[in-house]
Each structure stands twice: as C-alpha cells, then as structure tokens.
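Supplementary notes for students who missed Thursday's class. We covered one full example, reproduced here. Read the sequence, then the structure, then the short commentary at the end.
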Amino acid sequence: MKLIQMIQSCIKLFVLCVLLTGCGQKNNNSEKLSSVPPINNELLDEQDIIEILFEIKTNDPEYLKSFPDGIIPWISIEDVDQELKQLIGKNEIVLTENEVDVTIDYPVDEPFNISLKSDKPSGFTRGELILKISKEYKRIYKEEEASAKEKTIPIEKREGVINRNTTDGKYGIWGHDLGDLDLSEIIVHRKSGKKTRLELYIES
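Structure (token representation):
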C-alpha cells in the first residue's frame, strides 16, 4: 500500500510540474503578443495637419435643389475667375508660409510636386491659393497637349463614355478634361525641418 501511495504521489507531483510549466510558457507568449510595437518617429514628427475648405455661395435654382443651404462645397479649377467672387472667405489668410509644395496626383499618370509662392509677405489667402492652383493646372493641361502624340479627342467626336481619353504627353493625363475638375479642400502637411506640402482633394 505504501508503495502504491508513493507512486500516486509521484504521479501527482509530475502532473503538477507539467501544468505549472505550461502556465509559465503561456504567460510568456501572452507578454510577447501584448508587447507595444516600436514607435514610428515619422508619424511623431508630423507637427500639424490642417484642412482648408473651398465653398462658394449660390442662388442658382438648379444648384439649390442639391444644396438647399446655398453653399456648394467646391470651386471650379477652370472657371475660377468667374466663381471667385462667390468664394467664402476668399480674403482669409489660410497659410502663413510664403512658399509651399503642392502634390499633383490627379488625373495624371505619376504624382509630382510643384512649388507655389505667395505674392504677399503675410502668406496665402484662400483666393490666391485657388488662383495659383488653377494657373498651374491650366499650364499642365497645355503642356500635356503640346507634348502628346495621342491627342485629346474633342468632346463632340467621343463615342460611348464621354470622358477624356488618356494622352501620352508629359504628364499622362487621363479620364477628365480640365473643365471637369473642382477643388473641394486642401490638406496641409507640416513637418519639422521640411517644406510645407499641400494635398489637393479634386472632385470630378
């Protein structure tokens, strides 16, 4: 009987050791799974991200059907001269920098940056910003047409979908004519030691 009891005791002790060891391994694994990932210094370096809206007032009955408050949440890039007088806050200084980079990524084949300089030491007003962006887009479309072998098909000659055909010029513009493009907002990215960059939200 004593021998049996000793054997049973040994078995119980062995089982207990196995269980304790298993628990210890589980805890170690849990600690690894819950460990905090390394800090991304690039994200922490982002000092300021702000949004600049471009809205115009309208009394047009047709537009009021879709925008009963009389505010259209974008401005035409091609017809900016006509719509500028309706731009809300056009004289408000929205950027205190005198020079910024603007990312052009739509509707072009490859994104690229251009530089904009303000005419005023106080920075860019909302009106000046859209005027300069419009001027750059008009230049880009003009250079694309001049450098392309595959020219833009006139609207009256397009069949089926009337979207602009892709051209093979300097920028590889696709999908939309300049008159299709509206600017709804700009996201301003500021990072320490780097030039302020503007990200455009283009509606089409």
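Commentary. The CA atoms of residues 116 and 172 lie 22 Å apart. Residues 2-33 form the longest helix (32 residues). If anything here is unclear, bring it to office hours.
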